[in-house]
Hints:
The complex is a heterodimer.
Chain A: H1 2-23, H2 32-60, H3 66-71, H4 82-85, H5 91-113, H6 118-146, H7 150-163, H8 175-180, H9 184-201, H10 224-232, H11 234-238
Helix pairs in contact in A: 1-2, 2-6, 5-6, 5-7, 5-9
Chain B: H1 8-15, E1 19-20, E2 23-27, H2 28-31, E3 34-40, E4 43-48, H3 58-71, E5 78-81, H4 94-102, E6 105-106, E7 136-140, E8 148-153, E9 159-163, H5 164-171
Parallel strand pairs in B: 4-5, 6-9
Antiparallel strand pairs in B: 1-2, 3-4, 7-8, 8-9
Amino acid sequence: xxxxxxxxxxxxxxxxxxxxxxxxxxxxxxxxxxxxxxxxxxxxxxxxxxxxxxxxxxxxxxxxxxxxxxxxxxxxxxxxxxxxxxxxxxxxxxxxxxxxxxxxxxxxxxxxxxxxxxxxxxxxxxxxxxxxxxxxxxxxxxxxxxxxxxxxxxxxxxxxxxxxxxxxxxxxxxxxxxxxxxxxxxxxxxxxxxxxxxxxxxxxxxxxxxxxxxxxxxxxxxxxxxxxxxxxxxxxxxxxxxxx
Amino acid sequence: xxxxxxxxxxxxxxxxxxxxxxxxxxxxxxxxxxxxxxxxxxxxxxxxxxxxxxxxxxxxxxxxxxxxxxxxxxxxxxxxxxxxxxxxxxxxxxxxxxxxxxxxxxxxxxxxxxxxxxxxxxxxxxxxxxxxxxxxxxxxxxxxxxxxxxxxxxxxxxxxxxxxxxxxxxxx
Lengths: 244, 172
């Protein structure tokens, strides 16, 4: 049971933390339509995280709620991949991270739909429709920017260098994933093929095999997460139990 | 409290009064999000499903259902949310699709396209709710709320929404 709870929290934290990062673009996007697009995606991710948190609260059965899990856990208790908590960077970095994540979620949710847990399957079945939309949108933008102007191309090259060392963690199993038998290896193959196809069309070189950063899934985070949680949890920490 | 226990058809009539807060011409029945009505003696449970995960209207819809049921003498009605099977436009009523069109939002496409990941494809032909032309152009895949995409008619120049909770299914 502990493994299932930890895994559900990991899925919830991944979606919530990326949503919080993307939400920083609200009102600041490069053009109105894409400002709206990235915040719409954010809303889908928040919705998915709520489904996972509600399920985790149900499994915990100790008075936790979706809100207490999101607003009252500390940095070390968060289990998101490091990739999700990195600063939003410029638009190129935001787009590339969204693409990496959407491709990951696309294969993950396909897998979870068949997984032997009815509620995780149901959440995956619901969410994959949204993720398909995110994946297509972010793939197109990776290609537009990579195969765009000299400046947009250069920014994508920089974003790729910054983010690539954080992509391995998604497929390095945490103890709770091993215990549950989550097949990350099969997902990784599909993910790599998708990434390669889109990066090539975007005239970007697929990076060489390099050392991959990890730790987030086990609660060992970069310095960025603490600042993010300070923002995210401010109201509940300052006015405990406040509602509006 | 009501003396007589109503049948499901009566409760369906009551639910017709509960409208989608984002498209107030549509009832939640026409939208197809009411999946079951479970009635045992005086215990009433209404099962609903969201159109998409992040729909901020779901909590409000649940409250509106509770208020409607309370007005008919069922203050203890329970609202349960399920995610599977996932909502599809097939569950919308024909009346609902017509109302959506009259409201100025393009109704869902007659044929759903499954999970399509081809990039830079032509936007699906969406009919202009004002003049009926299929000569329309997608301006943005995302609109003012997470459930609407923005289109414009090339013939009558009308800008209009295509319901994206719907288009996510149709395009995705």
